[in-house]
Amino acid sequence: MKPASFLSEQWMTQYEHQARINLTDSSADSLSFEQLANFEPDLLKNLVLDYGTIEGDLRLREKILSFYKDRNPRTLAISHGCSEGSRLVMEVLLEAGDHVITYVPGYQQFWEIPEKMGCQVTLIELNEKDWSLDIEKLEKSINKKTKLLILNHPANPTGASLSNSQMLKIAEICKKHHVWILCDEVYLYPDEDHPSFNDLYDQAIVTSSLSKTLGLPGLRIGWIKGPESVVSDITLARDYSLISTGPLIDTLGYIALKHRDEIRKPIEKVIGHNRQTVDEWIGLQKDFEWVKPENGSLGFMKIVPITDSADFCRRLLDQTGIFFVPGSCFGKEGYVRIGLGFIHENIQGSLDEVRDFLQEYLKQNPSTLQK
């Protein structure tokens, strides 16, 4: 299977190192190895760097399972990050000729991999007013070959979250039509008020990691939580590529999850501050709009006059050093993805620079204006 270019990831790879100010990263400020290890320094002493437990360290697995109601260990598989977990789910569940439903704007993996596998994919356009999924349109899109609905909650790039009632309605529709759900929950910090899809529907498979909610993408710890029958097949598929994550990564992952509330608290504070600052700034502008996200570390900012978001982002980076991923990488023009998880010296001042650049950009490129 020859892959297509993964637009958002290739954009980050090509341009991120040029950034003076990165306003688009989807993670959060990361701890250093020393900071993380200092939570439990004795656990790393005399650590043997063999393969470790192939299915993942038992302590790590128990901490992951504590996020969910069903804590059966046979419902969990460890992966290298969330994206690999989602890929493994698709490869195990889908066959050529199956029908898959997902939406745009969204994460390209959700439609690209099924298409490359020979599946028919239906992309539902989200409601731009609030980035909601039209439940009626979803049900009408289901046909006899529909195998899988792929969701992202909270979503990349919009930051939109599903309400509990919406999740229950989607689960009800999928149960009625015998459709599996794959939900990427990498931006979700599950609790009583924000349940996982895995707790609501017996044919829901969720994937997640430590990359976003705890700001530890360098650990590359992810997981798949789902029905025992599917996880069993995924465990077999892991043997062809992953084998194990190893004792060092597993131990660090366990430490992070043992101290997750201590690590998460300052990240939530930064996200809340940035979300409020951006929202207040946008409220004073005529050329910028967004749907304020309720959860997660992302938002999708509309730059009203722009029709070529990639060109705008390239020139903005070249002339100011401010970095965004354009909406075109997610299937929606006229937008940029804004990240909320990092501490910025002056995020409002950086946004002022974006606004001032926009005025010069429009003078130089009048043909880019929305009609």
UniProtKB/TrEMBL annotation:
<feature type="domain" description="Aminotransferase class I/classII large">
    <location>
        <begin position="33"/>
        <end position="344"/>
    </location>
</feature>
<dbReference type="GO" id="GO:0030170">
    <property type="term" value="F:pyridoxal phosphate binding"/>
</dbReference>
<protein>
    <recommendedName>
        <fullName>Aminotransferase</fullName>
        <ecNumber>2.6.1.-</ecNumber>
    </recommendedName>
</protein>
<dbReference type="GO" id="GO:0008483">
    <property type="term" value="F:transaminase activity"/>
</dbReference>
<dbReference type="InterPro" id="IPR015424">
    <property type="entry name" value="PyrdxlP-dep_Trfase"/>
</dbReference>
<keyword id="KW-0032">Aminotransferase</keyword>
<dbReference type="InterPro" id="IPR004838">
    <property type="entry name" value="NHTrfase_class1_PyrdxlP-BS"/>
</dbReference>
<dbReference type="InterPro" id="IPR015422">
    <property type="entry name" value="PyrdxlP-dep_Trfase_small"/>
</dbReference>
<dbReference type="InterPro" id="IPR015421">
    <property type="entry name" value="PyrdxlP-dep_Trfase_major"/>
</dbReference>
<comment type="similarity">
    <text>Belongs to the class-I pyridoxal-phosphate-dependent aminotransferase family.</text>
</comment>
<dbReference type="InterPro" id="IPR004839">
    <property type="entry name" value="Aminotransferase_I/II_large"/>
</dbReference>
<keyword id="KW-0808">Transferase</keyword>
<dbReference type="Pfam" id="PF00155">
    <property type="entry name" value="Aminotran_1_2"/>
</dbReference>
